[in-house]
Amino acid sequence: MRIVVTGQEGQVVRSLAERARVHPEVTLLTLGRPDFDLARPDTIGDAIRSAKPDLVVSAAAYTAVDQAEDEPELAYAINAAGAGAVSAAAAQAGAPVVHLSTDYVFAGEGETPYTEDDPTGPSGVYGQTKLAGETLVAQANGKHLILRTAWVYSPFGKNFVKTMLHLAASRDSVSVVSDQWGNPTSAIDIADGILCVADRLRTDPQFDAFGIYHLAGTGSTNWSSFARAIFHDSRGEDGPFADVKDILTAEYPTKARRPLNSRLNTEKFHGMFGWKAPSWEQSTTSTVKRLLQSS
């Protein structure tokens, strides 16, 4: 199966490239700048069609949540128009598209995990452009699987786990918000979930359950408890650790509003594809160990 992935440096892309190596039936190609650029529509169609995909994974995105407030046009060009163009090119190539989206499409309220049928209501530019991207992806290709995820970390790129370990190397304590809740999600697990989807599409040509699914780590926590888990794992490996001071979101102002509730219900994905991510604690431990071993 020939899988074409948009982007080359992102956490999910790099995780997919790694995990695809244990799937001999998969050939994975990545598309990146300058030959492929979501902000330049003229580069999208030819790059995807010439790659002759059996499946397109739309992973590249504008993810600078605060900066998006100052660059709404660029964020829309990449997250909405660009994503729609990727989906359309996949359709022209006769391929389904798997598009990655985010918990930010919701208002971030309530105390229970969001289901795929819950009303959306993004409060910031990033979430608004990602929601617009979902709409354009669905309109451009009937064979679409939109996978919403949250709180992504991995051994690659910039993420919360790496930031916490870096801070602990130079200070005794860190202040972390305690009133934002979500599912910490390993990009390695996202990659495995996507490859599970790919295998289903490869082996079941009659598959028609396209639409929106939630794909996130199993279990939920808040940011400060997530930080404590990271330091617990690091300390067990003789790595850096720090005390964690709980603070409220109001004490840590950001340009873009952060959702207090990012929890996603993943039962629909589990029921359809028979796959569920490991517990967030288990995947965090694996990532911390790997980061410490490579440092």
From TrEMBL:
SUPFAM superfamilies in UniProt: NAD(P)-binding Rossmann-fold domains
Keywords recorded for this protein, A-Z: NADP, Oxidoreductase
Record has Transferase as a keyword: no
Cofactor(s) the protein requires to work: Mg(2+)
Function of the molecule: Catalyzes the reduction of dTDP-6-deoxy-L-lyxo-4-hexulose to yield dTDP-L-rhamnose.
Family to which the UniProt record says this protein belongs: Belongs to the dTDP-4-dehydrorhamnose reductase family.
Protein name (record): dTDP-4-dehydrorhamnose reductase
Organism: Phyllobacterium myrsinacearum
